[in-house]
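To whoever picks this up:

The nightly regression suite flagged CopG family transcriptional regulator as changed. Nothing in the input moved, so I suspect the structure step. Input below, exactly as stored in the fixture:
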Amino acid sequence: MPKRFRLTRRFQVGMTEDGYRRLKRFAQEAGLDEGEALSFLFEHFDSVMDEEKLTHRLRLFNTELEARKR
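Regenerated output under the current build:
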């Protein structure tokens, strides 16, 4: 029996404009709203990400983060 899709948590999130535009585009292409798209990505995180690329991108993001906050 399939799991019922219930949004049990709501939280405010701060996102960059680029990140939000990409989330909206992904959600639209997948036929989901933004919350459903985020739920999908995090429920299936291990199967949809490339660990090597994630580590590299995260390192770059953290390097630039302080400058981006200003």
